């Protein structure tokens, strides 16, 4: 009896096999290698199959977590994916990029006394297994309603709305400004965190279900929201993200070698500049690279710079380690790969040579004062602490704001003081009838899964509208 | 979707015209706006201002000089072949207003960009004086089309093989001396726009230029195309591409255009499309 108890407690949480840091920091292959079926089944067996699962409450799209894990235990991997699909159109993506530690896994009861069940790894395992085996059990699509929905933007929230509404029997068309679908999943998050063929495969599954996609269409200029409504769409969902980079407005910021994270990552990921000259788009390769900011995008930029061959990559951040907004796992990965953190430091100006190329940066050391409105301790400059840091490439990664292209063309959609769309938090309804919005265009820059959660709520509201009325 | 329906070689094959099927763009495009094009999946996205649109046929026309890998790739495409991506119309349209007498100055392929703007200025009732420049008469494009939309047309060549022997700025100075000009529009190489703006600033004549910085997305998402105008940073793709010529930092623009010189050469050398 006692022996049995000990055995149960000692099944440790599975460790995800990874590429070694000194190998992976020079390639763009995915860092975590995924679980084997044996590892997945062993980990799945750690789940207690709670009657009232707290993990599900922690998931913004309410995936039936014990249900899909049970199927893995039983060896029904295709069935596990089908269970995921009922609530989540992008399981292979979410298994990789969700901050599980503050969502499902953060609520897992097993985690109270030890390490939580690795729900993210298992979600990823099921989705990958289904994709690789080709054994995908697609969920049933409801009878056609004859209603048409336009989804603007093919990022996480748009794809969620499209997936939900196609299953409910509506006719869905996605409009995407770029030549490829996926939004931040293809232009922002690097290949080594989220391989692009996985995004492609999840979008292809949506297409198999009947979702139509129109790429190269910039809603706001190529066509407006009003024109979509006139063209016969019964509802429009706006999920265009926060795609307008912030710069710091410092002297020398327009020198060659200073990039927004959006440009640096778009060139590398979407345009595949890391494969230049096989692909035609170039990207600057710095020797001494500085990344300004400390969020996930900053970590992505830093790790990208290392893989493009930098000799040194520094993350320069004005606050201290505790305030860094990036996920702990990302900071850990970055550190393992040789990225340095220069904390309590803020840039003042950039220097360049005669040809306009960046040569260095002047910094000021900071100390932390009283907490500010955000609850974080405010960084204050230390007088006389200026010093020069040599660098030939700077990536400004201090956030992004709402892009006004779409909203300028449709003034009836109400905006707040930052240019974000005002939408009902419970339904996603905007101030314009028949138009919903969600994701970063409403909240400002946030996470993939929050955008998906907003998409889920908007899809439910759109469905109610199309079947019952506004 | 983005099929080439007409192809024409100009200026001894160094400049190429493509008329492309793009009905959604053709329905919307206004003078001064541009598109981003990508030849194939491994290609890069490059901006080109539309030289013309045909709303009935649902086509747009672009004219480009073959200068590197991407334009060589574009140039190698035949009628019936398709562009992988064409996105637009992008950027702000030219503000067309009756100013009385206006001068339209074009150099090189800038003449193609200038064409719909000149036509627009003519249509709203301006008297249009056009000055076109090129290195020699063989490199001059769209002379007849520009003549149709202008009241007066001056040609300048660097070698004197046609028209005035010298720069467009020589003729411009002359025109500004003799006429009361309400607006100058200058589109062409950066030094040309810079010198035109210097001349018109002395005379205090409002001047519009169309800038051509490096772009990636063309929708305001990356800031690769940023330019300094009146001391402020602007994104040419959404705030422009047209700006007040007197406030543009041309030296910064010239430098930023050289950012990928090395890579551009590597790309061209690796290409079989020369």
Automatic annotation (TrEMBL), chain A:
Judging by the UniProt lineage, the source's domain of life is: Bacteria
The record's GO molecular-function terms, alphabetically, read: iron-sulfur cluster binding; oxidoreductase activity
- Please give the InterPro entries that the UniProt record associates with this protein: DPD_II, FAD/NAD-bd_sf, FAD/NAD-binding_dom, Helical_ferredxn, SudA-like
From the UniProt entry, list the residue stretches annotated as the region Disordered. 1-22
Residue span, FAD/NAD(P)-binding domain:
147-455
Annotated Dihydroprymidine dehydrogenase domain ranges read 24-133
Record-given protein name:
Sulfide dehydrogenase (Flavoprotein) subunit SudA
Question: What's the source species for this entry?
Answer: Desulfocicer vacuolatum DSM 3385
List the lineage, top down.
Bacteria, Pseudomonadati, Thermodesulfobacteriota, Desulfobacteria, Desulfobacterales
TrEMBL record, chain B:
Q: How is the cofactor bound?
A: Binds 1 [2Fe-2S] cluster per subunit.
Q: Which GO terms describe its molecular function?
A: 2 iron, 2 sulfur cluster binding; flavin adenine dinucleotide binding; metal ion binding; oxidoreductase activity
* Annotated ranges, domain FAD-binding FR-type: 1-96
**Which organism does this record belong to?**
Desulfocicer vacuolatum DSM 3385
One Gene Ontology BP term is: pyrimidine nucleotide biosynthetic process
What keywords does the record list, in alphabetical order? 2Fe-2S, Iron, Iron-sulfur, Metal-binding
Write out the residues that bind [2Fe-2S] cluster: 222, 225, 237
**Metal-binding among keywords:** yes
* Superkingdom of origin: Bacteria
Q: Which Pfam families match?
A: DHODB_Fe-S_bind, NAD_binding_1
The name of this protein is Sulfide dehydrogenase (Flavoprotein) subunit SudB
Q: Does the keyword Iron apply?
A: yes
User: Per its Swiss-Prot or TrEMBL entry, what cofactor is needed?
Assistant: [2Fe-2S] cluster
């Amino acid at each position: 009896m006692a022996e049995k108890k000990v055995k149960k407690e000692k099944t440790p949480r599975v460790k995800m096999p990874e590429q070694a840091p000194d190998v992976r920091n020079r390639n763009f292959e995915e860092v975590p290698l995924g679980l084997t079926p044996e590892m997945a089944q062993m980990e799945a067996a750690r789940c207690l199959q709670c009657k009232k699962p707290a993990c599900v409450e922690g998931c913004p799209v309410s995936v039936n977590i014990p249900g899909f894990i049970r199927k893995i235990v039983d060896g029904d991997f295709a069935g596990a994916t089908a269970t995921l699909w009922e609530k989540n159109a992008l399981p292979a993506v979410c298994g990789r990029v969700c901050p599980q530690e503050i969502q499902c896994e953060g609520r897992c009861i097993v985690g109270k006394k030890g390490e939580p069940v690795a729900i993210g790894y298992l979600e990823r395992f099921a989705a990958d297994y289904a994709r690789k085996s080709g054994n995908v059990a697609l969920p049933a699509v409801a009878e056609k309603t004859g209603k048409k929905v336009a989804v603007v933007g093919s990022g996480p929230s748009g794809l969620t709305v499209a997936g939900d509404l196609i299953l409910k029997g509506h006719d869905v068309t996605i409009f995407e400004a770029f030549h490829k679908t996926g939004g931040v999943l293809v232009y922002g998050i690097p290949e080594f965190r989220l391989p692009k063929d996985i995004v492609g495969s999840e979008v292809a599954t949506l297409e198999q279900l009947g979702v139509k996609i129109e790429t190269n269409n910039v809603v706001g200029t190529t066509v407006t929201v009003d024109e979509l409504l006139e063209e016969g769409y019964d509802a429009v969902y706006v999920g265009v993200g926060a795609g307008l980079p912030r710069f710091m407005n410092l002297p020398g910021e327009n020198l060659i070698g200073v990039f927004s994270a959006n440009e640096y990552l778009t060139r590398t990921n979407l345009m595949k500049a890391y494969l230049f000259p096989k692909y035609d788009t170039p990207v600057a390769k710095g020797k001494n690279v500085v990344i300004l900011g400390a969020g996930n995008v900053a970590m992505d930029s830093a790790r990208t710079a290392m893989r493009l061959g930098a000799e040194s990559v520094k993350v320069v951040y004005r606050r201290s380690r505790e305030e860094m907004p990036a996920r702990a796992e990302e900071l850990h990965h970055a550190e393992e790969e040789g990225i340095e953190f220069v904390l309590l430091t803020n840039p003042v100006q950039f220097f360049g040579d005669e040809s306009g190329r960046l040569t260095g940066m002047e910094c000021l050391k900071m100390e932390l004062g009283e907490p500010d409105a955000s609850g974080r301790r405010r960084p204050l400059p230390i007088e006389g602490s200026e010093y020069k840091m040599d660098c030939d490439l700077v990536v400004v990664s201090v956030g992004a704001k709402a892009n006004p292209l779409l909203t300028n063309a449709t003034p009836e959609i109400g905006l707040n003081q930052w240019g974000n769309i005002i939408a009902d938090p419970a339904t996603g309804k905007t101030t314009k009838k028949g138009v919903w919005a969600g994701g970063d265009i409403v909240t400002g820059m946030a996470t993939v899964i929050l955008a998906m959660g907003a998409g889920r709520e908007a899809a439910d509201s759109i469905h109610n509208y199309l079947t019952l009325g506004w | 979707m983005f099929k080439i329906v007409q192809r024409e070689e100009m200026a001894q094959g160094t400049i190429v015209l493509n008329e492309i099927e793009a009905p959604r763009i053709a329905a919307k495009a206004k003078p001064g706006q541009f598109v981003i094009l990508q030849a194939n999946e491994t290609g890069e996205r490059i901006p080109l201002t539309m030289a013309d649109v045909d709303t009935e046929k649902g086509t747009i026309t672009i004219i480009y000089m073959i200068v590197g890998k991407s334009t060589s790739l574009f140039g190698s495409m035949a009628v019936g072949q398709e562009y992988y991506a064409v996105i637009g119309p992008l950027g702000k349209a030219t503000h067309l207003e009756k100013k009385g007498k206006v001068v339209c100055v074009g150099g090189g392929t800038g003449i193609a960009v200038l064409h719909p703007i000149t036509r627009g200025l003519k249509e709203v009732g301006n008297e249009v004086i056009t000055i076109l420049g090129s290195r020699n008469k063989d490199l001059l494009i769209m002379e007849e089309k520009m003549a149709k939309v202008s009241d007066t047309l001056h040609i300048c060549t660097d070698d004197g093989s046609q028209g005035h022997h010298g720069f467009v700025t020589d003729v411009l100075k002359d025109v500004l001396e003799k006429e009361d000009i309400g607006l100058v529009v200058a589109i062409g190489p950066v030094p040309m726009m810079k010198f035109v703006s210097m001349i018109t600033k002395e005379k205090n004549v409002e001047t519009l230029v169309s800038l051509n910085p490096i772009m990636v997305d063309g929708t305001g998402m990356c800031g690769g195309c940023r330019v300094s105008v009146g001391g402020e940073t602007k994104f040419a793709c959404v705030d422009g591409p047209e700006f007040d010529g007197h406030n543009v930092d041309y030296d910064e623009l010239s430098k930023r255009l050289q950012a990928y010189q090395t890579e551009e050469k590597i790309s061209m050398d690796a290409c079989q499309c020369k």
